[in-house]
Amino acid sequence: MRFQSWGRSLSIWPRGVSELVFVVVEGIDASGKTTQAMRLRDRLEERGCTVYARFHPAGDNWAGIRARRFLLAEGRSAHFASAMFYIADVLMSVIRTPWWGCDYVVYVRYLMGTAYLPFPLGAFAYHFFATLLPRPRHTIFLDIDPQEAHRRVALRESDREMFESQEQLEKIGSRARALARSNRWTIISGTGSEEDIEERILAILKVDP
User: Fold this and answer.
1) Which fold has domain 20-50+105-205?
2) How many CA within 13 A on the CB side of residue 187?
3) What is this structure's pTM?
4) pLDDT per residue of the chain (209 residues) written in tens, 0 to 9
């Protein structure tokens, strides 16, 4: 399914922030996106840059808290509710983000949350929000085999979320990967060492390691 872009004129991208670098790091659960976003933030701050990093679902607003709560539940209604609250969480993050006071804004999870919705609703939601929301300069997708992701999830001590079974990791991963490819995301392997992946991300942003 292909959608025609309506152009940046409909985006709610704040005016006057053309020099800001907006980076989005995505991937399925346990792909290493949070780790890499934190490493990127730290590396940029070491170079004197002002960085605002935002992780979803967030724990500082009602939508993010409810999204996380439903992720720990089961059933179709909880599945749909988690996706809806996630989208609301991202919208609230866009409002909260200090777009005018940073050199870099780094988001973990953004548009790819729509991959948790059933097809074709997820694809429609992706392109709808991609048209309206601030457009990242760099969109990076950490690709990882679902079996490896499931192995990493099993090593965690935290509660298991509804999308962290191997079956769900394969299903969501397939949808997210298709969206990333069709929308020209930069796709890199998430199975290397943390240092190697960090260097690849820095190279994409043209930041010296």
Assistant:
1) Rossmann fold (3.40.50)
2) 13
3) 0.90
4) 333 333 343 455 555 556 899 999 999 999 999 999 999 999 999 999 999 999 999 999 999 999 999 998 989 899 889 988 999 999 999 999 999 889 999 999 999 999 988 888 999 999 999 999 999 999 999 999 999 999 999 998 788 888 999 999 999 999 999 999 999 999 999 999 999 999 999 999 998 77
